[in-house]
Amino acid sequence: MSAPATAPARDTADERLAHRSHLRRLLGRPELGAVVGAVAVFVFFSTVADSFLQASSLSTVLYASSTIGIMAVPVALLMIGGEFDLSAGVMVTSAALVSSMFSYQMTANVWVGAGVSLLTMLAIGFFNGFVLTRTKLPSFIITLATFLMLTGLNLGFTKLISGTVSTKTIGDMEGFESARAVFASHLTIGGVDLQVTILWWLGLVALATWVLLRTRAGNWIFAVGGNSDAARAVGVPVKGTKIGLYMAVAFCAWVSGQHLLMSYDVVQSGEGVGNELLYIIAAVIGGCLMTGGYGSAIGSAVGAFIFGMTSKGIVYAQWDPDWFKFFLGAMLLLATLLNAWVRKRAEATK
Amino acid sequence: MSAVLAAVLGASLAGCSATGGKRAEERAAKAAQGRAAVDTPRWTFAMVTHSGDGDTFWDIVQSGAKQAAAKDNIKFLYAHDVEGNKQAQNVQAMIDQKVDGLIVTLAKPDAMKDVIAKAKKAGIPVITVNSGSEKSKEFGALTHIGQDEVIAGEAVGEQLNERGRKKAVCVLHEQGNVGHEQRCEGVKKSFKGELQNLYVEGTNMPNVQSSIEAKLQSDKDIDAVVTLGAPFAPTAVKAAEQAGSKAEVDTFDLNAKVAEALQSGKLGFAVDQDPYLQGYEAVDLLWLYRYNRDMLGGGRPVLTGPQIVTKDDAKILADFTKRGTR
């Protein structure tokens, strides 16, 4: 109880100028809880699954993480900005379908199809953001509507154009090889086979982190998610920021979609449903708040990594896959609780 | 003494049900349980399918596979995912574990191509089951065990002709499933009457029922409803009753309820692809291959169906469906 002696001195100092130690700054990071969780999951599966620690197994885990992680990055940014996107999962399938069908039907170079797909996706992202900021309806409603519409369009268009529920092969078309090199190639580093999506993932995480922490747009995202009225009052372009975030989701959906298309060269039109939740789960495990204004891109990557480790770890541990969803749910709950606890501790010691 | 014992036992059993329940299930399980009949090394075989969560069909496949695994001294692993790329990741995870044999489904063949090549490169023999007979050989699998969906559909169409049906509805419960489309295509091929496709949301049973009801109400001429999965047949029967339609309900695949409905005449016929056999044969053939380099059918697809099951067969099969092996 030595508080009375020190209290007056603290009052006179400006708390914004107070020096924070490295440790405390680390404790304040949103992804800290997730990192602790990831280490725990890693150690856990390393001990229960013999083959988990092999280099080839880790590369499989990283690949599984990257396919979720590429989308978790923009979804995390969007959540920091205070919104959701339920159409993100199906949009990946749409992106692949548009590319594939445009190239095939027009007998165009695969890159032309990819370009058309990019424009289409950005338009859908713009649509989401524009309708949201115009109508001021909750993002839950707007993107749920987009989700349903895209699900229907994916099936409807594919059946209409291809006659079946999957697209025709574009593997023998011009530009396919180079597109595959960009979106779906493998790199062999030290005898370990790594999918190129891992690079895309790390690149996107780095880019998003830079934007969030070092640019004005990053400040805008935090401000919009924290309190959009206050943000508007100090001159933050709220509408533009939100539309931009939805277009970022659309861009990453395009990247993911191209990966799906280039690695298998045929796309099934019914896929992608339910993945939007996985992206949100990754972002939440990684420390994003459901209420917006708080979170990080690195956190989303850690969240995706936890997801990849859990989903493949169960296979390596040779467990009954029926329990997978349970583990995922438990993991989500634990990670979120851990996050909340770590954050409370960090705020208390500020 | 023995009389007292009998009386006590009788009294303690008085509160129990003589039929059904957990005990009947355990008895059946015990009867179906096997012991290793061979002394080959304990190899590990993995099966990776495109099944969704909690699908009864794949439970039967697994029970066949486990039965053969028990007999052949095999450690059996199972993983599944509806999405092509995640299924492929699961196969990769099995390769990483250096399993001694792989059983995969090719519902989304293009997603599986690369990873099967990898398994081959790693020296792991692969057998495909259920779907994908046309791609199996091309991808380098030893053989394919399953039903040709188009042929199964044709069998249904012929049966409908035999029963004098004129207008039928093919109920697809999973939009976007290639195998389902092929089944309806097959029916269309051989059926002399008119066939319409009806898409329903398979994960939502009330929706399935109301959709079929609406369809039957809107077209009174429909005299046959074909469902593509056993769980949907009883629902279709209910829908037909609700709609006051005289349409006969027929179905692909078999389960306990379908066998029962066949016996009571609520269902016309079922076309069975014998999922138990698909699991059992796949494990057994992999064992034969490792043990003796045998391969059935010279690598050509081994068909497990279609078998038409009607009222006459249903009586015998009812017991087998109850224990989950048919």
TrEMBL record, chain A:
- What cellular component GO annotations does this protein have? plasma membrane
A UniProt-annotated Pfam family = BPD_transp_2
Output the InterPro entries linked to this UniProt entry. ABC_transp_permease
Membrane topology per record:
Multi-pass membrane protein
Report keywords, A-Z: Cell inner membrane, Cell membrane, Membrane, Sugar transport, Transmembrane, Transmembrane helix, Transport
Membrane-spanning ranges: 32-49, 61-79, 110-132, 139-157, 194-213, 273-290, 323-342
Name its cellular compartments.
Answer: Cell membrane
Keyword Oxidoreductase present in the record's keywords: the answer is no
> Does the keyword Cell inner membrane belong to this entry?
yes
GO MF terms on file?
A: transmembrane transporter activity
Judging by the UniProt lineage, the source's domain of life is Bacteria
Question: What is the role of this chain?
Answer: Part of the binding-protein-dependent transport system for D-xylose. Probably responsible for the translocation of the substrate across the membrane.
The molecule here is called Xylose transport system permease protein XylH
